[in-house]
Write a structure and sequence with these properties.
Helix 6 (124-134) packs across helix 7 (150-166). The protein is mainly alpha-helical. The chain has helices at 4-14, 24-29, 31-39, 59-77, 96-104, 124-134, 150-166, 174-184; strands at residues 19-22, 43-46, 86-87, 108-109. The longest helix is centred in the middle third of the chain and has 19 residues, at 59-77. The N and C termini lie far apart (40 Å). The strands form 2 sheets. Strands 1-2 form a two-stranded parallel sheet. Strands 3-4 form a two-stranded parallel ribbon.
Length: 185
């Protein structure tokens, strides 16, 4: 709550919809925060119930983790669980078995292209520099609003959005990217 709620104010001020990939246990602890994110129109995805690397889980453990996360989000936001289809694997780790399990459950895997390692708390200037060096058209930028990385997320986001807009970038949700991808096929 101490990082996400101020972040929501920044996103609202800049009129940007973000994509939130949540840990189920965080939603369980703070359902009002999850509901605030959803009510503001941000896109919701899954990150597992706890921050466990998916390859370390059995297929059943992975299914259970994602189902529990779906349930926590659906309850907090009062939405249908099946609307939650996108999954960002913790640390970006997956194996063919993980991908098969996700496909069997009709989840869509979402990765990133810009990761400034904000969870290491290198400071706002370093995070900004890393993002600006890596960003290109179609980039997915990962920032963290939790215990690790959350200290800088509001300030980084408040500075980043105007800089990227000035360069001609637009912000879209993951769903809009999926729709664009389908249109190309």
């Amino acid at each position: 709550p101490q990082y996400t709620l101020p972040l929501l104010d920044v996103l609202e001020r800049h009129r940007v919809q973000a994509n939130f990939f949540w840990l189920g246990n965080c939603v369980q602890r703070n359902p009002a925060v999850a509901k605030a994110v959803y009510k503001q129109g941000h896109y919701l995805g899954l990150h597992g119930y706890e921050h466990h690397n998916f390859p370390a889980l059995t297929p059943q453990q992975l299914r259970s983790s994602l189902a529990a996360t779906r349930t926590a989000i659906a309850r907090a936001c009062q939405i249908e669980p099946t609307l939650l289809r996108d999954v960002r694997p913790p640390n970006g780790l997956f194996t063919p078995q993980v991908l098969n399990t996700l496909a069997q459950e009709q989840y869509r895997v979402v990765m990133w292209s810009v990761v400034p390692e904000d969870w290491l708390n290198p400071g706002v200037e370093v995070i900004m520099e890393r993002i600006m060096q890596q960003v290109t058209n179609g980039s997915l930028i990962v920032l963290h609003d939790g215990h690790y990385g959350g200290q800088n997320v509001t300030q980084v986001t408040d500075r980043l959005i105007p800089q990227l807009v000035k360069l001609g970038y637009q912000f879209v949700t993951i769903e809009e990217l999926w729709q664009q991808q389908q249109g190309k096929n």
